[in-house]
Here is the input.
Amino acid sequence: MIDATVVGSGPNGLAAAVTLARSGLEVCLVERESTVGGGLRTAELTLPGFRHDVCSAVHPAALASPFFRAFGLTERVPFIVPDVSYAHPLDGGAAGIAYLDLERTVDGLGRDGPAWRSLFAPLTEHIAAITALTGSQLLRFPADPTVAISYALRVLEQGSPLWNARFREHVAPALLTGVAAHVIGTSPSLATAGTALLLGAHAHSAGWGFPVGGSQSIADALADDFRANGGRIVLDRDVRDPADLEESRVTLLDTSTEFLARFAGESLSAGYLRSLKRFRHGNGVAKVDFALSDPVPWANHQVAEAPTVHLGGRRSEIAASERDVALGRVPDAPYVLVTQPSVLDPTRAPAGRHTLWAYIHVPYGSQFDPTETITRQIERFAPGFRDTILASATMTANEVEANNANDAGGDIMGGAVTVAQLLKRPVLSPRPWQTPAAGLYLCSASTPPGPSVQGMNGWFAARLALRQHFGIEASLADLA
Ligand SMILES: Cc1cc2nc3c(=O)[nH]c(=O)nc-3n(C[C@H](O)[C@H](O)[C@H](O)COP(=O)(O)OP(=O)(O)OC[C@H]3O[C@@H](n4cnc5c(N)ncnc54)[C@H](O)[C@@H]3O)c2cc1C
Here is the structure.
């Protein structure tokens, strides 16, 4: 019998595997695909030499993550942290630009500059406390209550109908709403406001970085470390039930809650199974990757410097398009999240050429092909874009699920992100990673602290398994 098995090699499965192997355990990591990474894969999806991120592309959460900081991610993988964290072009050639430098951002926002400063400065000044507050369970008493109150008051303001009260023009609110829409949900709401303020604060702190070569570099660094500490990786193994695995003392699932219910079945209590059933998915994404002959001809030239761009127009337009998705419709002029990593990283495309990654929000399980809608929305802010397209590759929401079973219906968050589902992820418990089945843990984005590439879910689950089954007290310092 081996010590531990991890099913699934997304950032959380890999983080759990690294943590367990570094504690001296015999660990096997099993993955259904032929490469490791889950949401960290990078591949030639369009033409030879164009390297596209299949899922995640931009990594504010990884750069801020205590797990990745302890792991020394940026010493193992070269990162590019751009001066422009994100940009938001508007009709008529205007654009909001969020610089790494908060004061430079404030200077560009005209009459709303001071409002932006007073929103973000108290958060960026205490970014470690904000990261600690949001990077674990919502249920815990905050280590720094003053900072928690300051964050909570801002979330209440931006998550309520008062959200426009501090702004006098339309650029700053649009800039903020573009970040809020990283969560699929209607705005104003507490969940989208909490995300906007957290990611917005990272934009003026560690930044919105890109690993050179694409997100796969992060997965490869974790897998290399795991192997160097004696870990074994089995690829192309679609796990269906416990009989597909070697016997082991503990098993950690970097999977969906549906898979957990099928895998463990009757060894889970009826109450726990009911909670899993009640845990609901959010809406999905539909994505297009483009190979381009030239950089995107943005009407506002400053947008060309931004590897991350939010489209969709003013705050009210984005809010309306997100409402459409919530009502089960694909909007005509949706919010589009765009990344153009090759403007900073020449390894992503042949010389002079470019890759572009873009997705929209769509209803759960939608079969809508977003290629024309996304092309039209980019053309709106970059006339001539269509002429630069050499090739494209599309993933409907259903195909997002086919690519990774954890993303059911195209839900890339591992379950809807609402305040209720951040508290109960997937159950209300001081140890939500633990299941009622002996030695079985859930470590995916369906556990706290939720989605994004941060590895914390995997770290928390592995730390709990080490304590409960092996009497080992793991510390982040063990990862250095
Ligand atoms: C299109 C898209 C864009 C995104 N953009 C960003 C971004 O820019 N920044 C960011 O921080 N986050 C982004 N995300 C979210 C991020 O990728 C996820 O939150 C993160 O990958 C979740 O990690 P995880 O380890 O929980 O699961 P995943 O990364 O989903 O990995 C789960 C792994 O488990 C494997 N698996 C599942 N079931 C089984 C089974 N039965 N047998 C064997 N293997 C199994 C899967 O094949 C997969 O490899 C994006 C996601 C998508 C899909």
In short: The mean pLDDT is 97. Residues 456-470 form the longest helix (15 residues).
